[in-house]
Structure formats: C-alpha cells, structure tokens
Amino acid sequence: MINLRQVFTSIDMLAWRGFIFTVFILHFVFACQLLLLQPLVSASDGKPGNAADLLEKVSQSIKVKRYSEALEDLNAAIDADPTLSEAYSHRAKLLRQLCRYEDSEIDYKKFLELKPGNAAAEKELSQLHQAQSALKTASSLFDSGDFKKALEHVDKVVLVFSPACSKAKILKVKLLLASKDYSGAISESGYILKEDEDNLDALLIRGRAYYYLADHDVAIRHYQKGLRLDPEHSELKKAYFGLKNLLKKTKSAEDNVEKGKLRVAVEDYKAALALDPNHVAHNVHLHLGLCKVLVKLGRGKDALGSCSEVLDIDEELTEALVQRGEAKLLTEDWEGAVEDLKAAAQKSPQDRSIREALMRAEKALKLSKRKDWYKILGVSKMASVQEIKRAYKKLALQWHPDKNADNREEAENKFREIAAAYEVLGDDEKRARYDSGEDEEGMGMGGGGFHGGYGFGGFDPFGGGGGGQQYTFHFEGGFPGGGGFHF
C-alpha cells in the first residue's frame, strides 16, 4: 500500500523549493532594477558623478548610432529630474543631428532657461536654424530642378549640422540620381542601408541607380527586397514592373530579329524605346538594334535617325558608325558613307567586313562623280537598246546647234554630252563596262574627234565653217534609223 505520509512529505518539499526559487528571482530582478536605475536616481539626487556617467553612456550610444537608446536614456533622466540642464542640452543636440528641429529648439530654449546666456547653446541654436532653412531651401531647389545648388545646401549646411538626418541623406541620394551621378547614388544609399537595411527609400533609389547603369539584375533584387517589406509600395511596384516590361519588350524584339520577322522587330524596338526615353545605357542598344534592322530592310532614311541616336550617346561605338555608313549608302550620301566607314576602319583596322564596306563606299563615291549617261539620255538603267536609240535621236534633234542659234554654246555642250552618252550606252561592250564601274579612260573615252574630247569617226561637227551653216553628221555606226543625219 502507498504510504500517505511519504506522499504529503514529498509535496511539502516541492512547495518549499518553489517558494524559495520565487523569492530568489524577485530579489534578482529588484537588484537589476537598482543597478540600471542608479544613474537616474543619483542624477535626481543631484549627484554630479552619476549624472556624468549617464551622459557618457548617452554619448557612447550616439557614437555607435544607437540614437533611440540615447533618447530613451535622456527622456528617463529628464523625467526623473526636470531640472537636469545637461540632459536638455544633450537631447537638443541629438534632436538637431536627427533634424527634428522643432523638438530640438524646445530643448535648447529650456536649457537656456536653466542656463541663461550660455554662448555654446545659443550658437548651436543658430546652427539649428541654418540647417532647418537649408533643408527647406534644398527641397525647393530639388522641386525646381536646380540639383547642383540643392546638393550644395545639403552637403555644406544640413549634413554638417545634422549629420544623422535621414531625410537629408535621402534627399542627397535623390539629387545624385537626378544629376545622373549613379555611382554616387549607389555609394550614398549604401551607407544608409548599412544603418537601416530595411529603408525602403534607399532600396528604391539604389535600385534605380543600378537600373540606369543597365545593371538590371541588381536593380530587380533591390526592388524585390523592398516589395517583400512592403508589397503595396506604389513606387517600388511601378519600378519593378516597369523594368520587367522593358526587358520583355527588348527580348521580343531580339527574338523577332532571329526569326527574320524584321518589321515586327521594328515595332518592338520602338515600343521598348518609348517605355523610358531617359534610360540611356539601355536605349543605346535598342537604337542600335533598330538601326541594324532598318538597314536590312533598306529603309536608309529611317536607319540614319536611329544610328545617329546611338552615336549621340556613344560616339566611339564602331558598329554604329558602320551601320550609319550603310544607311548613308542607301540614301546615296556617298561622301558621308565613306567618312563613317573610314572612321570605323581606323577604330577596327583588322575587321575585314568594315574594309570591304569602305571599298564599296569609295567605289560608289567614285562612280557618283562620273557622268550619268542614263540620266543625260533620260532613260532607266534597265532601258533596252531601242529605247536608248530613240532617246538619243530625240535629244540630238532637240539640241542640234543649228536649231539653237540663240543659245548655240549651250546647245553645243548639250549635243556633245548626248553624243557621248550614246557612244557608251549604244555599244553593248562599253555599256557593260560602264555599268561595272570601269573608268571612262579605260573605255577609250577622251580620244580625238569632237573638241569636247569624245571621238565619233574622226569627224568634228564644229570644226569648220560658220554658224548657221548646214552640216552632214556621219556618226560611227550611223544615226539611229540608218544612214547619215542631214540638217
């Protein structure tokens, strides 16, 4: 059987042990409270040594940027002794550093009530007003777009007198971003995040700085971290989804180029560029992609605009020079094409494709300086022999010197030109050599015959007799239609 006496004895022992343990815990807590509150109690009792310890503790907290702890200690000290002037002075300085200017001013004034005429406090109060005014001015300048002056106010005044001012630090980062100093914005926002890794403003601005440097993966990580902290943050959401949309449009354009869907790619590139015209680091690649597609489509005039946009951003980009050179060839700007391709060849002397493009441009420029015999006869390059002969006969009749007595000199020049055009285009071999780009000298042009330098059977139609005289012209091979040409 169970011994009841033993059971009750065991229960009594457990109860006594619990009671003793509870008393020990209460004494321990009481002792801790005495130790922690001793500086405050001593300060309220007017013991300057312990008050100094408290203020030293506050100073140490401020050094390690534990501003909340420092404020709690100062608040407790003032609550314990509302006449403790040094606590007001320390709290006023701390609040000024945090740019809590209204609260700081109250404490400075309270300190001056307790310590009238204190020069140091009056000077600090003046600095407070300077910082307060500078912060307000910097904000106004930021809104008006004068970023440089705003940055000067923040750096030279606000952060000198209020080095712990989070508002001023964020404003400085915004100003650096607006000034396109992206590296500076990344650096300064990094300091903020070291102190407060969950600062949403710093995460947003730092993400934007990486975005404008086209470091999109890092930008996305900053936006995502901010959205995990606050999923409904409107600016973070806008930045995040805006970047995702830009990357989607860019990839669509590139994919369509690979698939050969060039016209669709053009629209994708244009849509991507419209999303953020200020994103220079990324848009330079979009403009280049669009330029290349337009060149492939033979849309030289449109391509020129896109290629020039690239070079406005980065004038050293060789590929953009090449593509603009190709676009200028399409628009028959031969000299411009040679200039661009020559510059590209100098930047990449080992690139064979650039050298070949330059040779094409130089040949086109050289050909452009020759007489355009097709244009002179008014026929297309695809004209048949019969079309060329008809055009020649019509123009020869129109410009014969005997039929243009009032402008004989002009008619003689025109007649020579027309005859020279027919000499080339009316001969299958010479026409083929002309079309291939061979020099006229290589085709026997420039021999005897006409005084203008073109040979026609050794006959000079203006070589004898006076004006108004009838001539019989016998051109080599005969005039179109057979026989001589009698006026």
UniProtKB/TrEMBL annotation:
- Which residues belong to any copy of the J domain? 372-438
Is-annotated flag, keyword Repeat? yes
Any one of the GO CC terms: endoplasmic reticulum lumen
Q: Which residues form the signal peptide?
A: none
Q: Name one Pfam family in it.
A: TPR_8
Keyword Lipid metabolism on this protein?
Answer: no
Keyword annotations = Endoplasmic reticulum, Repeat, Signal, TPR repeat
Principal location = endoplasmic reticulum
Q: What Gene3D superfamilies does the entry give? A: DnaJ domain, Tetratricopeptide repeat domain
Q: Where in the cell is it found?
A: Endoplasmic reticulum lumen
TPR-type repeats, residues:
200-233
Indicate what this protein is called per its UniProt record.
J domain-containing protein
Organism name: Saponaria officinalis
